[in-house]
């Protein structure tokens, strides 16, 4: 897939390739002599409004929409080649990446996938913003409440069990967004250099500029998509119920690190 990256605004080609059982997801920067960045919580770096991974000084930005598609479709092992630091934006959702995986097909490998049920409840937040993860019997369920405090984007709660079917049809097509009043400020700060009204829903009091919603609750669904992508950084199939209120990448990433810590502690015990 070739396109323009969302924040950096670079032309970029993304190629998805198979990988051996147990190898997880590895990102290869073809423009950096094949330097590898492994998708693992230890490589998370702090940055606003996106997920950034770095290994040995090599960065990859805004990988959450691709990782969400891989997790959502049940892909545990893959190589993602990038010719720039950030994947193509597509339409601002995971839809294009879902289509890539569907086109290629997914095969079952002769190995057990590393499933994990949290050993204790995780809670992150400050009273206004929160994310809670609890053990769940089977698979990942995410409940997300969006509340931007503006009348034209009412408080909305969505919940989905994350399966290949629900991801492809109900979660993956939900697009990234920002408020119209934020858009110019964000670009002035260096965000969204490749953004336009076709790959980002720019939300005005009258609705998205030069675009229409795919779902009445598309904004909340996209935030739920981001949770899936950020938790995919754990490299684990999760049996967990996630309840998030207004959470963003920074809170999601704290949870991803704690889930991985619990998993590694459980393996040692």
Note down, in words, how this protein is organized.
- α1 packs across α2 (95-104), α1 (64-72) crosses α5 (218-231) and α5 runs parallel beside α6 (249-268).
- By secondary structure, the protein is an alpha+beta fold.
- The longest helix is centred in the C-terminal third of the chain and has 20 residues, at 249-268.
- The chain contains 6 helices and 18 strands.
- Pairing-aware structural class of the strands and helices? alpha+beta
Q: How many domain regions?
A: 1
SSE ordering? EEEEEEEHEHEEEEEHEHEEHEEH
Report the total helices.
6
Indicate the overall shape.
Answer: globular
What oligomeric state do the depicted chains represent?
single chain
Which fold name fills CATH's third level, the topology?
Answer: lpxc deacetylase, domain 1
User: What's the arrangement of strands in the largest beta sheet?
Assistant: 1-2-8-3-4
Q: Could you state the CATH homologous superfamily? A: lpxc deacetylase, domain 2
Can you tell me the CATH architecture?
2-Layer Sandwich
Biggest β-sheet, characterized? Answer: 5 strands, mixed
**Name of the CATH class:** Alpha Beta
Compute the gyration radius: what is it?
18 Å
Proportion in helices: 25-40%
Distance between the termini: 43 Å
Give the total of beta strands.
Answer: 18
Query: Which parts are unreliable, with pLDDT below 50 for 5 consecutive residues or more?
Result: none
Integer average pLDDT: 96
Task: Work out the strand percent.
Answer: 25-35%
